[in-house]
Amino acid sequence: xxxxxxxxxxxxxxxxxxxxxxxxxxxxxxxxxxxxxxxxxxxxxxxxxxxxxxxxxxxxxxxxxxxxxxxxxxxxxxxxxxxxxxxxxxxxxxxxxxxxxxxxxxxxxxxxxxxxxxxxxxxxxxxxxxxxxxxxxxxxxxxxxxxxxxxxxxxxxxxxxxxxxxxxxxxxxxxxxxxxxxxxxxxxxxxxxxxxxxxxxxxxxxxxxxxxxxxxxxxxxxxxxxxxxxxxxxxxxxxxxxxxxxxxxxxxxxxxxxxxxxxxxxxxxxxxxxxxxxxxxxxxxxxxxxxxxxxxxxxxxxxxxxxxxxxxxxxxxxxxxxxxxxxxxxxxx
Length: 333
Ligand code: PEP
Ligand code: MN
What we know:
By secondary structure, the protein is α/β, with parallel strands linked by helices. 36% of the residues lie in helices and 19% in strands. It contains eleven helices and 14 strands. The site of manganese (II) ion (MN) has 5 residues, from loops.
């Protein structure tokens, strides 16, 4: 890290800074530059409280070379991490496809959809039992009953199940039956929930917050990794922009950027990104083309009657169409 002092900072002030940083066991080198002095700091600067330093000392700017996240960084772990969910691998060249309805509505719906998405090539099954809804009057999910239905769908098809834990109170029951635990966009910075996920032996699917920067996203993954859970899959699901034609804007640039900065696998959710079923397939193809390690797609047998997110849900046959065109992109990349 470089620390640049304000112009005209006296020798005494620079020595004070030198002493303070020396106490923090940093390796320091002073670079006198005419009116302005700079210091280089070596060692682990990730725990350095820059705000506190800035409050006390005449600092003009600082340039961090080390990322604030450590365990999530590519530097810490140069190889791609491969997350294995019951034999379905994400990362390191392995691509997995999660499909299923937004919400678990009934056993018939879930089993019917599970059988079809498996037939069309999905490798994991999704379905929300606890739903984060913008309105308290909207369907909130079947809760524990929904989890039991998911287990039945897994028994029927053998597909591992992916479902969301919305809060610490629900985490234990979700953890018991899910094969991959989702932390949704709205909870990306729910730090107690991230800490709980860090203690879990189950892999975690962490979705990007609606307005989270790449650094904030990786810092949230860092919480889970720092808690001891190394099986984290990231998910880009669209962010808020000025445009309202689509539900969100799919940030495709995040995929190769994450690949540069982190070793963690990253998948794409084109359904929540665009909110319109007709745009899901082209975005899914683009996601695979830019290097995503997988997809999560909403599928409903009767979107008009869906209790949640019907407008963005593909009918099973359309999901079949998506799979065959995405498989061509997979083969090409
Ligand atoms: C979901 O996948 O069911 C969901 C609610 O997604 P997000 O958290 O990305 O909005
Ligand atoms: Mn949904």
